[in-house]
Amino acid sequence: MACVTAETPATVLIDDDAGLWRLRDALPHATVLLDWWHAAVRFEHGLQDAPGLGAADMLLADEAVRGLERAKRRLWLGRWPGCRRKLAALCRWAQRTNVRNEAGIGRLERHVGELLAYLERNQGALVHYAARRRRGEPISTAFVESAVNEVVAKRTNKKQQMRWSRAMVQPFLDVRKGVLNDRREDDFRHRYPGFGPTNADEIVALVA
């Protein structure tokens, strides 16, 4: 198994989690970037709300969608200042006298405001996502999220013969993680210090 040191080249994909940010101390030379999938999902929350504004005036919906899509495009191209300006302008637009009382505008404004705050908290991890994608470098954990969701959904399905209960999902995943990392014996011994000898030599000595 390869040994990871402070000098090991690494990419850390984060999602506003303090624990992931602390990895910078252990891996000072790592590239830290905000996971594109999580950022894109937050844009989608606003884009899903925007069409509902059209019940009163289609122009409102079009304005909201254009603003969000332009901001998202700028973020994708590594133009964070432009993205921030677009989102801030959209928040101001939603507060205008002729707009703020329209049905659905409050919900849209909340999502845009939360998105802007989220990106500002993580602006140190924003990169040129399009350029990284062209170079074949990682920008997202979407495939991991999808795999985890698929496994958990399958195992908690009522038709599954060996079904996981909600309370048992995390313990099962912890065991699987220990197996994959070859740490299951160490983890078990940490929980039960009196568990058996730590190596084969001790086993031989006990047998002798």
Quick overview of this protein structure:
This protein has 208 residues and is mostly helical. 60% of the residues lie in helices and 4% in strands.
Textual characterization of the structure:
This protein is mainly alpha-helical and 208 residues long. The protein contains eleven helices and two strands; from the N terminus they run E-H-H-E-H-H-H-H-H-H-H-H-H. It has a two-stranded parallel sheet. The chain is extended and about 75 Å long. The two termini are 32 Å apart. 16% of the residues are buried. The model is unreliable at 203-208 (pLDDT under 50).
Lay out the secondary structure.
Layout (H helix, E strand, L loop, with lengths): L10 E4 L3 H4 L1 H4 L4 E4 L1 H14 L8 H19 L3 H15 L10 H17 L7 H6 L7 H14 L10 H15 L3 H8 L8 H8 L1
Parallel strand pairs: 1-2
Helix pairs in contact: 3-4, 3-6, 4-5, 5-6
